[in-house]
Known about the structure:
Layout: E1 3-7, H1 13-23, E2 29-33, H2 34-40, H3 42-50, E3 54-61, H4 65-77, E4 82-86, H5 91-99, E5 105-109, H6 129-143, E6 147-149, H7 155-161, E7 168-171, H8 190-195, E8 200-203, H9 205-208, H10 213-225
Helix pairs in contact: 1-3, 4-5, 5-6
Bound molecules: cytidine-5'-monophosphate.
Amino acid sequence: xxxxxxxxxxxxxxxxxxxxxxxxxxxxxxxxxxxxxxxxxxxxxxxxxxxxxxxxxxxxxxxxxxxxxxxxxxxxxxxxxxxxxxxxxxxxxxxxxxxxxxxxxxxxxxxxxxxxxxxxxxxxxxxxxxxxxxxxxxxxxxxxxxxxxxxxxxxxxxxxxxxxxxxxxxxxxxxxxxxxxxxxxxxxxxxxxxxxxxxxxxxxxxxxxxxxxxxxxxxxxxxxxxxxxxxxxxxx
Length: 236
Ligand code: C5P
C-alpha cells in the first residue's frame, strides 16, 4: 500500500496550520523540510504532531559522520518518524547515522529528482544516473538505513538489480498526468507509483499549490486506489 506524504513547503506556521486543517482525516504523514524548519524550527514539527500527523523531517543531513549521527539523535528527541540524509556523504557517514540509538527511520537521498543525466556529468563525463542511484542505494542499505529516496522511474530497475533488499522506496517527483513538472525532471504519476507498489510518495506543489488542496489530495488518493497493480519483476 502506497502512502502519501505531503511536503509542507510553506513559509509560515499559519499556512502550515491551514494545510493541516484542510487535509485532516485525509493525510496523516507530512514532510517538514528545510524551508519551514529553518524559519520555525521545532514548532513546525510540533504543529503537525498537534494535529495528529506523523513527520518526515527532510533536512538531508550531509556532514562528517559524528555531526550527522548527533543530528539524527536530536531528531529522535523531536519525535519525528523519519529523517533524511544525503548518501553522497559516504558510507561511513551513513553507518554513523544508522548506528545512532534510539533513532527515527533514516531515508537516504540518492540523486535528487531535480537532476537529470546531464547534471551528474559534473562528477564524471561518463557518469550514469541509474548506476549512481543504484550504487548509492546499495551503499545505504549496507550501512543499515531503512529506505532510499529516488525517482519513481528508478524503482523497478532498483528492485531488479538490488534483488530483494528490504529497502523502502520513498519517491518525490510525483505529478498527476498533465500537471506541471516545476523543477522536477524525473517524474511519475501517482497511479503509476501506486501500481508498482512504491512505499511512500512525497507530494508537494500538486497538493499545496492547488486552489483546493483537499480536493487535490482526494483526487490523487482516489487515482492511486484504482491503479491496477503492475506485475513486479521481482517479488517484494
Ligand atoms: O512540490 P514537489 O512535489 O516537487 O515537492 C517534492 C518535495 O520532495 C520537495 O519538498 C523536495 O525538497 C523533496 N525532494 C525532492 N527530491 C529528492 C528528495 C526530496 O524533490 N530527491
